[in-house]
């Protein structure tokens, strides 16, 4: 009687393939992961961005940014030039209530801080923690409720691609509007800890010297007539 079984043959071939490929790579230590991750962030990145509310409806379906990151003497600096399209509430909030509806805005922000192996600390309240060789995460917790205001992930999916996901959380003790202003009459926040909104950013690495050209291109694309520098 034959003892041949297709499943047994598949398992045998899989085992042979593993043996021929050699031993599995040992997991990286935290120091090795850190030494590999942080230098890959340095450079200029072009981002395509989207922003959704808690019901997954687009607040801004498509906007852009350019990010420049430098790493020197154990310190990472992150400077972002973000372009909000005309007619959006975020453009009006940044540019002022007198911003014409057909004009967009450029917002310039910067954060910098020291790197201690798996941790980047732009300021005392913000710590990005390395969770594996390709991802860092930030939990920005509210001191009163203990609930995160934001949960942020940065993941290097390749040497030229960076994905950032930012989850905004309803964190106030009292029910509030989108800008965390308490509603009247005051009442406990029954949605504490639920999703307020999320943003998804997709970045690709640019070549050296492309920063100014991309800023000009995106400024023209979004008719950004005002630039607000918060650095």
Describe the model:
A hairpin with a 4-residue loop joins strand 1 (43-53) and strand 2 (58-72). The chain has helices at residues 6-21, 30-41, 89-95, 211-221, and strands at residues 43-53, 58-72, 75-84, 104-116, 119-123, 126-132, 135-141, 148-158, 161-169, 195-206, 224-229. Strands 1-2-3-4-5-6-7-8-9-10 form a ten-stranded antiparallel barrel. The chain contains four helices and eleven strands; from the N terminus they run ααβββαβββββββαβ. The chain is globular, with a radius of gyration of 23 Å. With 231 residues, the chain is α+β, with helices and mostly antiparallel strands. It has a single domain (29-229), classed as Calycin beta-barrel core domain (Lipocalin, Beta Barrel), CATH 2.40.128.20.
Number of helices: 4
Helix content: 10-25%
Radius of gyration: 23 Å
Overall structural class, as computed from helix and strand content, comes to alpha+beta
Query: What is the level 1 CATH name?
Result: Mainly Beta
The sequence of SSEs as H and E is HHEEEHEEEEEEEHE
Instruction: Tell me, rounded to a whole number, the average pLDDT.
Output: 88
Q: What is the spatial order of strands in the main beta sheet?
A: 1-2-3-4-5-6-7-8-9-10
Strand content: over 45%
CATH fold-type name: Lipocalin
What distance separates the N and C termini?
Answer: 80 Å
Number of domains: 1
Number of strands: 11
Which blocks of ≥5 consecutive residues have pLDDT under 50? 11-17
The CATH architecture can be named as Beta Barrel
Major sheet summary line: 10 strands, antiparallel, barrel
Which geometry do the CA atoms define?
globular
CATH superfamily: Calycin beta-barrel core domain
